[in-house]
Structures are given as structure tokens and as C-alpha cells.
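Fold sample X.
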Amino acid sequence: MRGRLGVLVVAVAVLAAAPSARAGGGDPPPPPVSVTTDPDGMQHMHFVYGPLAAAPGQNLILAGPQSVATPPEDGYIVGFKPGLVGEDLQTPPPVEQVHMHHAVFLNLSRQDATRPELPERMFAFAEEKTQGRVPAPYGYPFKASDVLAINYMLHNETPDSRHVFITYDMDFVPAGTPLAAKMKPARPLWLDVENGKAYPVFDVLRGQRPRRPLHLRPSKGDWTVDHSGSLVVTAGHVHPGGLWTDLDLLRGDRRSHLFRSEAKYFDPNGAVSWDMAMTMTPPDWKVAVDKGDKLHVSATYDTTRASWYESMGIMLAFMVDDQDRAADPFGHRFATTGKPTHGELGEATHFGGTPTSLPDPAKAPAGGTVDSRVGIASFAYLPGDMSTLTQAGRADRARRPGPALRQPRRGRLGTAHGHGVPRAVHGGDRRVVPAGRRRGRLRLRRARVRAERLQRRQERGEWETAEEPRRGGPTPTSAASTRSCAARSASSGRARPPRPPRRGRARPRA
């Protein structure tokens, strides 16, 4: 995790040079694509960011290098609507092909409220594309001199290179208008169960609590309120399998539940896809908070159907300085549920199940493992490259063999998103998922040695994979290969020496 944080720190350090460049006479950010103005002075701006190139199988966390288009004058941002479109700038790509894992809008000119070492995280969206709005008379104060950046993670699940664009619509109140004279500033609060991490994810394993959802409540996600004020809006973010996020207020020994942002699934199969929308607080929701209170966020995932790897639990709230007409969290009634921010999105309605020309994996011959290991060869995993697939759907065999991986005993997979292998073996992907610790590098070396040893044994024909594994038997190799190995050992007159005991203090027996 320390290595991942270092990746973000380096990226932020590079981007942080942008304010000084702007002050030194650098090029201003591009203007909005279109602007319409209401009679009261409210402006509706449409922006486009890109193009963003996504290599086959890409799942990298990136930032820049394009300049982020912003409003050309000072004012208040009161609405935000994100989107992702293809090269025609109109059609969203299907979620199962290309989707935005996350995109965070950063104001490099300010410090984040909950993590001051980071730039201010002002808005964000993921594949559910939650739309946000700060209720009147509040808004996010924006200055034309502010420098913005986008930290995003784009997934391309196809074998072809793709180009997409981020679109975002802003409702903006220019300074100097009669409407702006009535506005009050609101600041964003990024509340995260893994707050501070460059890649704030966690694994949710099936069956951790059978027939009950897993409720995560890590204390490291708590934030202490720095001065009294009020919360005026919040909404959550989860991944497929997520049910809701909860925001609680802790004051001494007392706890008040402030809001639950639920994932409303349109998918008829339930909580298994991105076909969903998150609920947001009602427009009249306003809850007072005092200095010293703790804001506590948690995420709930369903573990009865599947495991959900690299999940998230985030709530973005906006806080104002006044407590006028705000509900007392311990003395008043207020809404703790809301409505979805949008309806069903067409790009998320492709559920699959239709016939294809690809072979049916259920009819393929059964395979096996060697000593509880899975041999992986000819797989390019930097950065998730699928470009070497042949027309038959197999990887190009000209590449060097990859590592052989031992199945984790408890099924816990620390993965670069979607790879499904331990972090330590991603040696070629250190910029994204570094091994980091010495222990991880040692595992990486051992994995490479095992891979080379297994490859040599395979080339010499010392083992064969059984066509059908035997029931109840722990040995995955065939009987013929076992006999051939035993015969070679007997003919050579050498017996395998016993394995020496491990060094260190012996564990006491139970």
C-alpha cells in the first residue's frame, strides 16, 4: 500500500506544478463546449475531457495530461452531471466493454478537508454516474485561477484499443449576478472507509457472514469535525454487490445515524452489476455538527452470492459554516433515506446470455494443477495487455513463460484490479501494484524460480496433466506421470533427500 500511495504522491507532485505555471503566464484551461443561461443568471455548461486512450485490458490509475476545462470566471458550482462517451462524443460505450472505474476531480489550488496532504477532492463519479447538486442557497466557490486535474481509472475489457471522452455538465452561478449575492460557500468532505489511500479498495469475500451482509466499520475512515457547521448534502458510492453506505455522527458515547445512501439496482438479477443508481439526501436535508464530532462512514455488501474484490465505500458530503434551521442530530427528526439521482442508463443494460461463436468453457476437457500450482505462460500483464491474443483466442506462445502461482489457502486475493493473482507476482507492473516490501520481493523471486522449474519439467515431459481429476484425491497429476517420475528416480539410483526442517523457533503443538 505504501508503494501505491507513492504513485499518487508523485502524480500529485507533478500536477501541483500547474498553479505556478498558470501564475507564470501559462495557457488558460479550455473553455466549455456550450453554455446556456437561465433568466435568473444560472448557467448550464457542458465540458468534454479527452480523448483518453485505453489499451486492451487497461486498468491503470492515471492523471492528465490534458488541461481540465473549467468555468472562465469566478462563481459557484451548484450542479454536476458526469458521463462517458465514445469517439462520436455522443454514444456511451457499453459497461461490459469500457467503463470508468472512478474519476476524481481535484482542485490543486486547495487542500483537502479530510486529508490535508492531498489536493481537494471536489467531485467524483464512477460507472453508476451519480449526479450531484448542492441545495440553495449554497454552492461550491470556484475561482477562475483554480487549477483542476482528474485522477481516473479507465477499464477496457476488450482486445482492441479504444478512445473515450469524459463529459461533465456544471450548473454555475457567475459572481456579480443577483443570484450569486444570495449564495453561501460549501466545502466538500471526502469520507471513505479507506481514506488516504491512493487506491482505497478492500475485498469482500463470499460467506464471511453466511446469509447476512458484511458491514464494514473501520475507524480509520472517521473524520473529526474541525469547526461547527452543518451538512447539507451527501451521497455514497459502492461497487456491484454493494447495498448501501451509512453516515453516522459520533459525539462522545452517543451515535446518531445521519443518512443511508442505497444502491437501487435496476438489474433484474439484483446486486450483481453496474445497472444501479445511488440515492442522495433530499433538498431540505440539513444536519448540524459541532466541533469535535466524528463523522463515520461504513459500507455494506451482500456476501451471500459472490465475492467482490477491490470494492469501495465512499460518501461525498458538503458542509457549510452556519447552523440556521439545521436539525439537531440527537433531538430532531430528519430524513435518513433519499431518492436515486437518475434512472436506468442504457449502457448498463447489457446483461449477456445471448449465443456467441466462442467455445463453451463448460464443454472443454477438464484440466488440473501441479502441486496445487497453476502454470501461467505467455501472459503480458503490463498494463493488462491482451493484444497478443491469436485468432483462436490463445495468447502468443512466443513470449517467455510467466510465473507459477500457488493457490492462496484462505482465498484472499490482493489483486491489481481484475488480474486475480497475488500482488507480489506483478513484478512487471511495479508502477501500478508494486511488491513494496522485502517479503513481497522474496515471494516474487520464488515464484519466478518455480515457474522456470515447472517449465523445464514440462519441456522434458516429466509430467502430464490428467484429463479428468480424480474425486477425493489430492494429487492433480496423472498416474502415468507419477510412475514415470518414480521410474526415473529408481533408474538413476538417487532418492530424493528428505526436506530439512525450517529454521527458527518451532511452534508448540496444540
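Fold sample Y, listed below.
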Amino acid sequence: MAWITENQAKKDAAFQAYKALYQAGLINENLLPLRRPNDGPEFNVKDDRASTEKASAQINPWISMVLASGSEWCKYSISIRSESGELISRMITLVPGYIPYIPPYTVFWSHTSTYEVAQEPLGPVSVTDEQINLLGQITHLIHIGGIGARLKSNNKDFVVLLSPSENIEPSILKEWLSAAQGVTVATKFCGNARSAISSSSRQAIVREIGREADPHVLQDFFLGSDNTTDDEWVLAAVKFPKRRDFLHPLTGKRESQNAAYRTVKHFDASACTIDNMPVSAATFAILLPCILHRFEIYMIAKSLQTDVLAPVGIVDTHLVLTAITTTAAGEHVNYQRLEYLGDCILKFSTSISLTALHLTWPESYLTAEKGRTNSNGYLCRASLAAGLDCYIVRNRFTGVKWQPLYTSQVLDADTRMEAPKSDLSTKTLADVIESLIGASYMDGGLTKSLKCIQTLLPNESWLPFDVALDKLYTTVPDDLMSSSLRFEKLEALVGYTFRRKHLLLEAITHPSFTSYREALSSSYQRLEFLGDAVLDYIVSSRLHAHSPPLPHHLMHRIRTAMVNGPFLAFLAFELSIPEDRINITINAATKQPEKTHETVKKMLWQFMRQTSPQIPLAQQAAVKRHDELKDEILAALYGGSEGREYPWSLLCRTGADKFFSDLVESIIGAIFIDASPPDADGGRGGLDAALVAVESFVSRLGILSILAYILENDVDCLHPKERLGQLAVGDEVRYVRVQDDVEVERGLYGCIVKVGDREVGGLVVERTRFEAETEAAWRAAAILMREEAGGVASGAMQENGQAEDGDEEEEDVWMSAEEGDHDGGEDNFQDAMDID
């Protein structure tokens, strides 16, 4: 359509564009931007959750077991062995329900000795009332041997019954009970045991008359003089442990106190008695609270596994227990590593579903929606809604005031009343969602992890991975709008041949690119959004699978080092392909044109399509900085430098604009979609094929080889800001902007670091805030480390004046997500580093 004036043409073009936005579903019926809750993402959602929420008390799984019990009991053999494999004790437990498999575990008997506890199922058994009565008496006797006078009840209707033998015939039980009850005068014991062949007959519990509550373990006995009168027997014994927590090693004060349990004391046999109950039963009795606690936490995990998580179908109960156990519980496992993995998988799954469900949403909409559904506040509310709070293991076992559980107590209405709610960290509630996602992944891969996400976050739409990928692929045009475009060199560079060339075209198109011939083409932003999550998953899953297992904080550091913007931009400069170039010059003598041939390197970033006049200038400046620093960076990344420290400061100084790293992630997103359908012969396709193709490109970039070097050589990936915060100990670290110094030219950013009131490292001037603060932190940390090594107190104060009002930056910013656009916008470190 032709218009008389330019102004009318512009107005009509704007109207047609707005009409297209409406038809694409990007504005609502009122022609306004989409807003939740009805038609679009919710923007600028603040995570204004409280630090704690009222959460249900940790469930008591014995209650549901007793209430659901029938006539059959389940028998389990519990064996306790020394480090050398010697059997210390073996007892049969009878439980009115199923106990999940518990892997063998260690108990810490002393500061030098540990025992291994192993459980073996012996199957169900029917028990008569007579047998229950006898087993109750035996169990009561064994408990007395463990906690003695502290046993508050004389009841014998225990939830967990103990038997010294697999054979629970009444005659066998009566015989053991008769032999184990009461005590023997020590002098008589010595006379009887002197002629015994087995040294084990000398093992017994010794009690000094009048101090029966202070038992000792007999080590040996001997005559105190040359005559052989029995009254002169002397007993050598060590103190029997009084503590009840054998699940945690002895450290600090507890270790020094344990010296008393290694000191041999001598007693006059005539002043002592010997327990008739075998020392092996007494040992089992004192360890029983720990054994039953381990029963309990696995039962909690099994209850969650068969209740809330039943649709997921997790097989491994140990994984579930790991996922619901907080560090505060002090157990042998905790959820931190699984939470790291689940966080990455949730981001991966969310990004794929959102991109496929909202084909017309721009990257900003997708990012906003992902931020909402992956936020700690949202996950905390989902955790409470799913009822996960009562399954979270957060109570630390101490054994203090431990008492056995009785059936009559469980059936009492007061016992079964719901315990009052207590405060629980909202981050813990959110973390458990992510750790359960991680556990599902470990149990059954991405398919099972998605089922867990669907189960725990049912209010969101989640597409199966193959369905989402098929939707993303089939909506891509199968031919290019311009037949003149050729991608052979770019495909050779990335090592992948695209079936849908339009995906590659979109992946290299900057948002600034305009062309009337390609009015419907999109920029790389949506693909970058997807590629960011795919790269994060590939790196994170490798780190989690590393052997030996890496602690969660180290995985976070290394992942950040592998997926941050400056690092990906650096690799975009390094990835190149040879290109023949013909140069035409004018011969000064003949005035005739002459051809010369040369081979040059064409880098990945040079394939980007853009029409902004500022971008070529930014590219030229970035190339210059890259060339100046690349040798040092490569030496640090591939082991050519003396130190083993990740080159955070050097990468920061390259000052690469964000579009360099965006290009890498958008190509990852494009490959991920294009590789998903089966090949022409009907071969492998789907999610696995897509990930294999992406891993090939990621390897080609050098990410996987650098990751391998970092892991093999223990490269320190701690960011300078984190390091400075650790070195500062209790002093506050501030990054103070300097604007009135003569060294700070217009358009540059000046920064000094203050640790407490001390200025450390001097003024740093760089292009951006991120560059200045990172360099300043690196310098300050180096100074503090030198002082620490030289014995200088790093917290000493120097008089350097106070920062002027307004100079101090309140927000701790490690990187601007939009550095390359020079728009002044500065996001927090995690956003900029493309991590959650």
C-alpha cells in the first residue's frame, strides 16, 4: 500500500505491527501487554517470602505401622561386626510391618573403633500370644541392659520385639530368658570361667555393688596374691559407654571425655557382680536406639515414596531419604548434592516446556515465567501444598532421653494427636522439591524426573520432552525465505549439518537485524533462552556424575566457571574455520588491479547477522582486547600457567559484549531442536539424540576438555568476590564507586574496595561496573592473601577517609547481564552468569 506522506506510512506500519502482535497472542483483548493470572507471565515478581513458614512436625512412621498391622510380624536379622569382620552381636528384631532395605552403616563405638551394622530380612512370621509375651520380657530385659534405671515403664508391649535366636519357639525363649536374668557373684564367675577354653567366656558386664548404674566391661581377671583363695580375685575392666549417640564420630570435648572408656580399672571381685545377660546382648542394647532411629528415617522415606511420590515410581528408598534429609539433621546423608542436580533439571524442563507451549512468546516473557515457577517462594508454597513438610528429616538424633515405643502408647489418642506446627526455613522447603527432582533423575533419568515435576508442581503445564521437541521442530519452516543463503561453512565450523536451515539462520540473527525481505524472521533470543538451560544441564549432570563425588559448593563454582558469559564469549573468538580470501589491489606502476590469495580464520562470532552501527565497533574493540589477553587465558585454562586458578579477572578484562555468549547458547538451542527427530532411516531421535548432538558441539567449543582439566588438576574456580568475602572474615566488604577522580574518564567506571574501614588495592578503572569490581576484588584478595601468608593481620584498619554519600553501591553485583548493550542495566551475579 502506498501513502502520500512518510508520516502516514509510519502510522500504518505501526498499526499493522500492533495488529500482528494481537494475532500472535502477545497482547490481550484490551490491546495491553499480557499479565497474569489469565493470559501471560507475571513480570517483576519479587520473592518476598518470609524466612520461615509454619510446617508440620516430622511424622512418626511407627504410628501408621502399628495401626495397619495384622497378625503377621516381619523378622529381620541385625548383625554388628568389628572392622576386622568379627561378629560382636546378632539379634533378631520382629516388627509389625515392613522395614525398607537399609544399606550397611557405621556406628562409632570409640574414637578408634567402629562397628558395621547390617540388616537382613528373614521374612514374615506368625506369632502366638505366648511368644509375644516371652519376647516382650526378653526385650524388656535387653532394654534394661542398655538404658538401665532410665527405663521409665515396666510395660512389655513393645512395638519392636527382640529375640536372641531365629527360632522363637517358647522353649527356646524361656531357656534364654532364664539364663540371662539376674546376676552372679563375681568370685563365683571367676572360678567358673577360669577353666573355660573360650576367651569369650571372660567377656561380661561388671557392676560394683552399690554402684550398679555404672557398668564396666570385663577384660580379664587374676589372683591378687600368691595364694589361690577365690576371695582375692581381681577384675580388670573398662567403663561401658553411657552415651547413646553412636551415629556420629567422637570429636572435640566428647573425644577427650571418651578417654575414660579406654582406661582399665581394677576391682575387688568380692565387691562386684556379673550380669548373666551376655555382653553381646548388652552391646546390642546400647546400640538399639541408633538402630531404631535408622529404621525410623528409612520408614519416613518409604512412606513418602509410596504416598505423595507414588505416581513417580521411585525404586530406591535411599535416594528419597537423601533428598529429604537436611544438613541440620546431622545424618549420614543430606540433600545438598541432589538439590544442586534437581535445580538444574527443573530449569531444563521448565525452559523446554515453556518454549514449546508458547511459540510466540519473546525471550523476556519466557524468562519471567521461568523465574516465577522456579523461584524459592513458589517452590516453598508447592512443597507445603504437596504435604512434604512432615516428611523432611530435620531432627538431629542424640539418644538423650530416648525411650522405647510401646503399642499401647501408639494406640493412645493423645499420642496420635497431630503435633503443633513449628518454624521451618522456606529455603529448606523449596530445596526439598529440587532434591526430590534430583533423586527421581538418579532413579530413572529425565523421564522420571519430569514425572516428579508434574507430581509436585501440578498447577503448571509440563509437556513430555519428546512431545515438546516435536512441537518445536515441526513449527520451524522447512525452507529458507532466501535461497541465496548458504550455511556450509558455518555448519562445518559447528560440526553439525542442519535439517531445518531456518533454525541456524535464527540462531545467528541479532535482535538489531532488520530486512524487508525477512520481515517474519526471528532473532536468536528464544533459542538462547533454551540453549542456556541445555548447556547448564550438560555441565551440571557431568559434575554430579564425577567420581569421586564433588561437594555441592564445588559443583556450583565449577559450573559457574563453565557457563558464564565472558568464558563462552572467549570460546566464540577461539572457534574458527579457515577461509580463502581474494584481495584486489591496484598496482602503483601499471595502475591495473591485481589479485592476491590468502587464508584467514573466520570466527564463530563473525557469522552473526546484525544491522546496528554500534555492533561492529564493539566487535572490533572486543577483538583487540581478546588478542591482548588470549595467551594468558589459554595458559590458565589448559594448564600452561604456573598457578591452578581459573582466570576470572582476565576473562572479565576481555570486556566481551553479551551478544558473543548469546550466539553460542542460541546455536546450542538450535542444534537441540534440529537433532531431535529421527533421521531419514528412522534411526535414533528424541531427547537423547538431541543431547548427543549438543554435547558434540560443546566439546568442539572446548568446554568439555577445559572441564576435564579443571577436575583433574583441582583448579581453583572461586570467584574473586567470593574469595575476598572469605578473607575478610567478619569485616564488611564494600565496592565504592569513584566518579570524581581524574583517572575516571567519561564513560568508564571507577571502583575501590573497602574491607571494614580499610581501603585495599587502590582505584580500579574499567569499562563497566562488573569489570571494575571483579578486578578490584582480585587485587584486594591477592593483597590479603599475601598479608595472611606473611602474618599480617588482614583485618587491620587504615585511615583512608569515608566514602561520600551516594558513592557506596548497596547491591552486590558481580556481572551485568546486559554489559554488551551498554544500557546501564545491571543484574545480580547469578542472572548474569546464567545460573540459578
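Sample Y note: The chain has a mean pLDDT of 85.
Also: The first strand starts at residue 52 and ends at 55.
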